[in-house]
Write a structure and sequence with these properties.
alpha/beta
Length: about 725
């Protein structure tokens, strides 16, 4: 049996001092923006009708029967699920009221209940092989209804209330872009894309197993029914992918046929004379190279899943384990210290999205991550038990920050439910303190205990925890054995996939990989709530109601303690508490209103070394985005893709080589509570061969190999 250490695979390139400090795919101005909700008229029977397209959203006599007839039955979902291994993806053009999604979900639940095996629709050929048991429903909507409109429309179908209520709970704000929705204890994901079809489809990676073309009639919505739609469908389909649509007009038929779909015209539903359904057979000439549309470094080869290990039990590791487990995949988390003991061990972390005024990609990713994290928190933690969505004020405590916030608000159009600006008076009312400045307010944000969240996630029955230290990854014919620090390996524990989620320790496991991360020391100070109040004397008692973020942060007291911090020290590996950093944290109190300013003066009279606290080490990247995705074989890539040194756009249209089944999820810095669930879903999508939960361009911005590629393009290697 061939064995080799990953350490022997290639030499580590020297990092460049000119490494970019921002994502290469970022552009000026923010692409995310709030959307105007759909104009809906309601007839006397309460039926919704689109004002934009002058048409009803569903059949007014029987919307349920129409949806089942046109889409679900024509797509033969139950029969195909029985013969399908792995994730199954449906793509719908036109989410509308969500009725097609609800009925497909109901069909999926019926199928799941009928299956004797919980892990797969059929037994895998290899007894150790695991198969993802997951339905991914993607829907693209240019004119979305808001939550209230969805609720009003679906109230017409009280028999669907048990699913409708879950959809309405998770339904996102009307913000342009991707929204990945998960439903607790359900093997299903809904990705809503609020954009036009021709902009959204190029951001998908495929494959799509079933197409629902439901974007109003071609005569009423000609912008959707174009050759761009049909060619994108061909690119994203695989042999046997189905298509169903209520229309049968000749232009649509010709467009689909010329793109490789074999079509059948059948009687339509109700008063509609004809409709179409069919199958992708690709019989119309050679297919375009898929690598024209998805870069090779975003397309690792497929690999059977047998046993997955995650090294690191912090917020990145535990969220990734849960994302895989909810797809029916067994996962082992390995951490020498147990759950959330390193940077994820802080008792209170501020959970919000610090957005950059000139970084479109950066802000888009963190907004999507923030909204996804909120949905996970609502599902897994009760308010008061490890988290509090008390709101968060990002203070404009300096002139520079004031100008930055003003520029941001002027250039964006996010809904007020996401964030809005506050005057000093408004900030005082919301915070419960006498503030000296206003700022940006995130009404649904707050603080989270990373430990409590991790503890809840790893309760999933498919997740197990091992407490041991890993010193080396050993390649065994394309799979991985994990060598412990005592030099032992467990030959019976060979993993098909390994996800490295141990932050700064990742470089020790991958010493020859180019991972230009930085370790940043952060020290927290704990203040006793009663003692702080007693220090006020005749002054107003502290009644902090929301999280405050300035140069540091402070959250409302939990269990009688304030958590104040955190210091920021680069190239500093001191683990012990330092009085000088306690003093830095004291100084942050100056930003937090008159009550805390008075406390600051009192604390300066005491010895900071006497106060308790905690030290942790953040792991950050040069562009302040996480590294989440597969690991390139850098030596092979350097040879195979040397052409990108001259022109990145002319990259070779050939497969890239990766370290088989090896993934990275690190570099979250102080924002892991915001970014980790989204990155976890991304890695699960890679491994289970699903469509990415975020735009393809944003996926590339998170790729671990992006820094290596940038160095090649700049001829720094």
């Amino acid at each position: 049996m061939k064995k080799s250490s990953l350490n022997d695979q290639y030499k580590k390139p020297q990092p460049s001092s000119s490494q970019s400090s921002s994502s290469s795919s970022a552009a000026n101005g923010l692409t995310q923006a709030s959307l105007r909700r759909a104009n809906v008229n309601w007839d006397e029977q309460g039926q919704p009708k689109s004002e934009e397209f002058d048409d009803f959203y569903f059949n007014t006599d029987s919307g349920i029967d129409e949806s089942r007839y046109v889409y679900i039955n024509s797509s033969r979902l139950q029969q195909r699920w029985k013969a399908h291994n792995g994730s199954f993806t449906v793509l719908e053009t036109g989410f509308g009221t969500g009725l097609n999604f609800i009925l497909t979900w109901l069909e999926w639940m019926s199928f799941q209940d009928s299956q004797p095996l919980s892990n797969a629709s059929q037994p895998a050929s290899n007894k150790d092989q695991q198969v993802s048991n997951h339905l991914h429903f993607i829907s693209i909507e240019k004119h979305p209804l808001d939550k209230d409109q969805i609720a009003q429309a679906l109230a017409l179908f009280p028999q669907l209330k048990h699913l409708t209520d879950q959809l309405i709970t998770e339904y996102p704000l009307l913000i342009k872009g991707f929204h990945s929705l998960q439903f607790k204890d359900q093997h299903i994901t809904l990705t809503l894309i609020f954009d036009n079809v021709n902009a959204a489809l190029p951001q998908l990676n495929g494959p799509i197993d079933a197409w629902y073309l439901d974007g109003f009639a071609p005569a009423k919505n000609p912008d959707m029914w174009t050759d761009t739609l049909y060619s994108s469908m061909a690119r994203l389909s695989r042999a046997g992918s189905s298509i169903a649509t209520s229309t049968s007009v000749s232009d649509v038929r010709r467009g689909l046929s010329s793109s490789g779909f074999e079509l059948n015209k059948v009687p339509g539903f109700g008063l509609k004379r004809e409709m179409m359904h069919g199958t992708f057979i690709q019989g119309q000439g050679p297919m375009a190279n898929p690598l024209d549309h998805i870069k090779p470094w975003l397309k690792p080869p497929t690999k059977d899943i047998r046993h997955i290990a995650i090294i690191g039990a912090g917020i990145a590791g535990c969220t990734t384990a849960y994302a895989l487990a909810r797809r029916g995949i067994k996962v082992t988390i390995i951490d020498q210290h147990g759950i959330a003991t390193e940077a994820s061990g802080n008792p209170q972390g501020a959970m919000y999205a610090k957005l950059a005024a000139g970084e479109a990609t950066h802000s888009d990713i963190y907004v999507q991550g923030y909204l996804q994290s909120l949905r996970w928190l609502h599902q897994h933690l009760e308010p008061g038990d490890g988290w509090d969505n008390c709101g968060l004020i990002q203070l404009a405590s300096t002139e520079k920050e004031t100008k930055r916030q003003q520029k941001f608000i002027a250039n964006t159009h996010y809904p007020k439910q996401l964030l809005h600006s506050l005057s000093r008076e408004e900030a005082s009312k919301i915070s419960g303190l006498t503030m000296n400045s206003g700022g940006l307010f995130f009404p649904e944000a707050g603080w989270v205990s990373p430990l409590r969240l991790c503890q809840q996630l790893v309760k999933h029955p498919l997740i197990q925890l091992q407490t041991r230290s890993i010193s080396e990854l050993v390649d065994v014919n394309g799979d991985w054995q994990l060598k412990s620090t005592d030099g032992t390996t467990e030959p019976e524990n060979t993993f098909s996939h390994v996800i490295i989620a141990c932050a700064n320790q990742s470089q020790k496991l991958l010493p020859n990989c180019y991972l230009p991360t930085k370790s940043i020391r952060g020290q927290l100070t704990y203040l006793d709530e009663d003692e702080c109040d007693s220090q006020q004397g005749n002054k107003k008692k502290i009644n902090l109601k929301t999280v405050l973020c300035g140069k540091g942060y402070i959250a409302p007291a939990d269990n009688g303690k304030y958590c104040l911090g955190a210091s920021y020290n680069i190239k500093d590996d001191e683990t012990q508490l330092r009085a000088s950093d306690q003093q830095k944290n004291f100084d942050y109190l100056e930003d937090f209103g008159e009550e805390f300013q008075h406390l600051h003066r009192k604390l300066n009279e005491s010895d900071p070394a006497l106060l308790p606290g905690r030290t942790g080490f953040r792991c950050t990247t040069p562009d302040y985005l996480p590294m989440a995705g597969p690991l390139l074989d850098e030596i092979a890539f350097d040879t195979d893709f040397t052409a990108i040194r001259k022109n990145l756009a002319r990259y070779p249209r050939q497969e890239a080589q990766f370290h088989s089944g090896l993934y990275l999820n690190i570099g979250h810095g102080s924002r892991g509570l915001t970014s980790a669930p989204l990155c976890a879903e991304l890695i699960a999508a890679y491994i289970c061969e699903e469509n990415f939960p975020l735009a393809k361009d944003h996926t590339e911005a998170l790729l671990p190999g992006r820094f290596f590629i940038r160095e090649m393009v700049r001829n720094k290697r």
